Amino acid sequence: MRRRQQWTVQSWGGSVMEFRVTREVLADAVAWTARSLPPRPSVPVLAGILLEVDGSQLSVSGFDYEVSARAEVDVQASESGRTLVPGRLLAEITRALPPHPVDVRAEGPRLSITCGNARFSLPTLPAEDYPSLPSMPSSAGVVDSDVFAEAVGQVAVAAGRDDTLPMLTGVRLEIDDDRVTLAATDRYRLAVREFAWRPETPGLSAAVLVPARTLADAARTLTSGPEIVVSLSSGGSGEGILGLSGKDRQTTTRLLDAEFVKYRAIMPTDSSANATLPVVQFTDAAKRVALVAERGTPLRCEFTPGQVTLRAGGSDDEGQAEERCDVEFDGDPLTIGFNPTFLLDGLAAVHTSRARMDFTSPLKPAVLSGVEDPAAADADGARASADRPGSYRYLIMPVRLPG
Hints:
single chain, DNA Polymerase III, Chain A, domain 2, DNA-binding, cytoplasm, DNA replication, transferase
């Protein structure tokens, strides 16, 4: 701690920063920025949040060389300046403050926070060692924030978690004029979603690979405004950056320098059988039956005209479960097995009351997609086709059944 204070004194000398801000506004901005902080920073300053006051505006920023986050807040400032403070501690403190205006003052090696009868004093970090945040790339286009958040959430669920295979931990973002396609896969399932957007330049074409976790978090938390501006830059190998900005917030992430799989070749173009499922009823039944499925064992689905029978377990020393669910089925009777978690993830992502599963054979991938409610289609007939439920497809690999 003594060394940290020495660094800060050398960094700041006699500079002062002072402002007053609404507690809820400050807590929200700090919490949002803190989400991007690395859990195990490579150097101590990367655990910090940078507070910068310029005129009547406060910028709350974080950066770890891969992801940056910046929120802007209106304040009543007495002194402009900048200081770097421990980020997660600041987030915990601002979240716990009483509902009163917050007075913040930074001078030398300390930052003081006063709110009602509560007062905190924090050590600062050496701001001169903090890296400069990357500039926001040029705008590529604009998309409705709710459409973007839904699309990213539907696709990111299929991305891999193994960092040794970076090409599988990303979401492929493809731009083709006024349409955007997102795709992600972990080799056991593949999710693809298309939607309409408004490109900055007609005829724009691009394809990049974005870290899935970063993209999902940003899309989910940039919904306070009606639109999200998508920005792109590309440099040398591994130097590309994606920027996302909404109301008073912006984030950037370095793109993955990896080759994504040829996913369009994986998606079946025809089927020999299909089933239309009531999503809620089928999901509830699958969850109940899966309770007895040991780790790594499949959920057995036996499709016949008018119904599907779900089974799990089987041996005498295991639990067993069976449940029937009414479905619309077209084709010869089919028995197929799925990883229960992967199947339930897909059902949760379709966001429609009914879903369709297309099959080719018990040992080949099945494709899950949403079925549009005719009443909703009539009420919203002008909606772009790229935003309809059929624009989401979730391919799931079957599991070979025993015996």
